[in-house]
Amino acid sequence: MAVHRLFRQTVFGPEDLAVIVAAYEHARDALGISDSAGSAATVLAKTVMRLAAEGPLEEERICARAISSVRAAQLPAALSA
After folding, report:
1. Does residue 13 sit in helix, strand or coil?
2. CA separation for the pair 37, 61 (Å, rounded)
3. 49-77 burial string, b = 16+ CB within 10 Å, else e?
4. What is the pTM of this model?
5. Could you give the angle at which helices 59-80 and 14-31 cross, rounded to 10 degrees?
6. CA torsion angle for 6, 12, 13, 16 (degrees, to 10)?
7. pLDDT average per 10 residues of sequence, the chain (81 residues)
8. Is residue 17 within 8 Å of residue 24, measured between CB atoms?
9. pLDDT at residue 37, as a whole number
10. How far is Cα 23 from Cα 17, in angstroms, rounded to an integer?
11. Which end of the chain is less enclosed by CB atoms within 10 A, N or C?
């Protein structure tokens, strides 16, 4: 799934989408996710969209919470490996 297609299927306006995409891209870079079509990128995109819907729509807040959420989700898998 192309991640940007997921973003276009929302009810957010263009300015809001710019904030959401920026938060996603910064979080993706911070997490070292290079394949924007991979499953990790999709999980991150869905997390960012959920956080954006919860509000407030602030890039730094969405990015930081998305990073924490994805890292926390990966921790149990890493511990069982």
Report:
1. coil
2. 24
3. bebbeeeebebeebbbbbbebbeeeeeee
4. 0.80
5. 40
6. -90
7. 58 88 95 86 91 93 96 64 45
8. no
9. 79
10. 10
11. C
